[in-house]
Amino acid sequence: MIDTVLLALKVGILVLLYLFVWWVVRRTVRDTVTGQAATSPPDVALPTADVPPPPVSPEERDARREQRDVERTMDGQLLDFTPHIDPRLVVEKSPIVPPGVIFPLEGWVTIGRAPSSSIVLDEPTVSSTHARLVTRGQIYVVEDLGSTNGTYVNERAVTEAQLKLDSRLRIGETVFRYEE
Amino acid sequence: MKPRTVELLFLVLAGAAATMAYVSVYAGRYGEVSRASIVYALFFVGVFVVLHFVVRWLLPLADPYLLPVTALLCALGLTAIYRLEPRLAQLQGRWLLVGAALFILTVVVVRDPLRLDRYRYVIGAVGLGLLVLTIVAGTEVRGARLWIRLFGMSIQPSEFAKLAIVVFLAGYLDDKKVMLSVPTRRLLGVPVPATKYFGPLLIMWVLSLVMLVFMKDFGMSLLFMAVFVALLYMATTRIVYVVLGAGLFAAAAAFALSVVPHVRDRFDIWIDPWRYAETTGYQLLQSLFTMADGGVVGAGFGRGYLLYAAGDPVVPDMATDFIFTALANEMGLLGAVAVILCYLLFVWRGFRIAVWAPDGFSKLLAGGLATAFGLQTFIIIGGVTRLIPLTGVTLPFMSYGGSSIVANFILVALLLMVSHRTAVVHSGDEVQRRRLAELR
Questions:
Q1: CA B101 – CA B203 distance, rounded (Å)
Q2: Which of these, A128, A141, A136, lies nearest to A167 by C-alpha position?
Q3: CA A58/CA A49 separation, integer angstroms
């Protein structure tokens, strides 16, 4: 009698153990394939709550894009004097900030790793005070503040450059798109 | 299904396995199915159900498989210890309670692993202090100086130092990883980073060398060095550190072989145990015979030949270092493989947690802990099966030993916290997000 019980228990334990392993493996593989966590909405500490909705409709923005006030300087650089309505930086790609997050621009804005920056990018390749965005009349200009790894507009290292509609601003590994 | 529902289901499964194992041991010994063994099993399941509810309360989105795997490993370990020496099983049961209490304490106090990063130097110093304390005030047991006697208990501080050093290194390397990964010059044609950033590598190397010489323990020394090299690799993705680290450790091991007799003995036994069959090689040989005796399916719990008539285990130290041998004997090859698969599951989940973690510190923390856990398991199972020289590290959750079980419960708590954080960041669960943000 007791031998039968022991045999049953022995087989039972082995079966349970392998069932356990099999189920965990199957569920893990399924999670991996469907990529449960592949889409990444915003991080915990982001200022997403106080982002205002864009006040300009897409049609209106396209219309404005048609009639921009452009002038060429003496050395052939193109300057854009169209007054901006709602200047902002939209995150396109970043290791820490989820793409799509909007930073509205108002006045002078500093970007850097220091917590006192207007836009804090806590990345190792970002200097503590990396760059600043300054207004000149109606245009925004980005100035590099002697950062270690440089500031890039449309993938060109700059010390100072105007941000035009849809310019790509890269600081560290974060790429912003400038919109207005 | 919600993660906690999954966890509860798997805990029920683990609980069923635990109950069957206890009943089996009792029946194998006394020839009857008794109520006592069921009560024992219920106590065990109760502990894990309590942990489950703590997790449900504070970390509702944490990984659902770690706790059940832990329960399964603990159950099998406790059963094997009970099988060998019922007195030790009672003590181990108490240690399990202490471990569960510390698990809860860790979860309640820390909550968010990122908060540990703030105290990284304090934690690192504590870890280093524990190691130094062991070297200075430790007592030697069977040639290795790993224990400290305190209030009549033997504590193995290196188990806790392991956790502290992983936390410290995760924070430190996350900060310095860019400097460490950018090569500035060439050494023998290999691009290497600036010399000053090699400082920590050298310090860890010296530390593991010191451990090797003064603690006379090859296993812990290998564990520390390997975890460090693995973390460096994870932080920088530069294989040069792995090559260098392996080279440095090989040099240290070669040095220790010629200087420390205890390490030399272990090495000789590994190469040819039959030459020392009557003396130092006896333990390892007995272990090999016992495992072979188990066959493919084993004799069943309580039925294997593990104890002499006088009650001494056939392999000395079977409840601590050779617990895997006992399991392999009674559960056979199939059971032993299942146990190894359970350890693999644990490590797999650990690395998954690391891969999905939202920030560098959490990534390195989870990766480091999973590496430490997996390596320790490899070192001891490899040791008792004569794959590598035998050293006295514990088999996580299974070996008899309070420090080990308590430290590993803290390790599980840390992994669960990282996975909860990841899930919160990725899920868009506003309530949980606010709760995490408030902690900062």
A1: 35
A2: A141
A3: 22
Q: Tokens for A117?
A: 């920056």
pLDDT at B142: 66
Report yes or no: B17 and B69 within 8 Å, Cβ to Cβ: no
Tell which residue, A37, A126, A125, A142, has the closest CA to residue A89.
Answer: A142
The Cα of A151 is separated from the nearest Cα of chain B by a number of Å equal to: 18
Tokens of B316: 């000395």
pLDDT value, residue A76: 65
Distance CA B408, CA B403 (A): 8
Q: Torsion over CA of B268, B270, B271 and B277, rounded to 10 degrees?
A: 80
Nearest CA in chain B to A10: B300
CB B328 within 8 A of CB B312: no
Query: Using CB atoms, which residue from A18, A28, A39 is nearest to B338?
Result: A18
Helix runs in B385-428, H state only: 402-427
Q: What pLDDT shows up at residue B200?
A: 66
CA atoms of A88 and A97, how far apart (whole Å): 15
Task: Determine the Cα–Cα distance for residues B337 and B331; give it in Å rounded to an integer.
Answer: 9
State the Cα–Cα distance between residues B286 and B293, nearest whole angstrom.
10
The pair phi, psi for residue B290, each rounded to 5°, is -65, -40
Evaluate if pTM is beyond 0.80: no
Are A24 and B69 within 8 A, CB to CB?
Answer: yes
- pLDDT value of position B439: 76
Series of mean pLDDT values for 10-residue runs along chain B (440 residues): 88 91 84 78 90 93 93 92 88 93 94 88 90 80 71 80 92 81 68 67 76 77 88 84 84 83 86 87 91 88 82 84 92 94 95 86 94 95 91 88 92 94 77 78
A20 with B14: Cβ contact below 8 A:
yes
B69–chain A Cβ distance below 8 A for any pair = yes
Whether B158 and B220 have beta carbons less than 8 Å apart is answered as yes
Token pair for residue B124? 């690192």
Overall residue count recorded for chain B in this entry: 440
Neighbours of B91 (CB within 10 A): 15
Q: Which distant-in-sequence residues (6+ apart) come within 8 Å of A162 by Cβ?
A: A79, A80, A139, A140, A141, A142
Alpha-carbon gap, residue B250 to B270, rounded angstroms: 17
Q: Rounded distance, CA B420 to CA B433, Å?
A: 10
CA B347 to chain centre: 10
